[in-house]
Write a structure and sequence with these properties.
Shape: elongated
Strand order of the largest sheet: 1-2-3
Structural class: alpha+beta
Order of helices and strands: HEEHE
CATH topology: Factor Xa Inhibitor
Strand content: 15-25%
Number of strands: 3
Radius of gyration: 15 Å
Number of domains: 1
Number of helices: 2
Length: 64
């Protein structure tokens, strides 16, 4: 059986925890952040645990 190729676009954006959960950066951090409230700006700095419906992405990063 040949190896499964890793989808590099997904591998750069998402990582797996030891328990198999998926973590990604919060979106919307690039520009136009001065108009956001401080609470939203702080929350954008945190990593997000993706919902269970995104578990199909695990197949794209098999060796991480």
């Amino acid at each position: 059986m040949p190896k499964v190729k890793t989808h590099q676009g997904t591998a750069k954006r998402i990582r797996k925890t030891k328990r198999g959960k998926l973590i990604a950066r919060a979106t919307g951090q690039d520009h136009f952040n001065s108009r956001e409230s401080g609470k939203i700006t702080t929350n954008k700095r945190r990593d997000l645990i993706l919902h269970k419906t995104h578990n199909k992405l695990k197949a794209l990063i098999p060796y991480k």
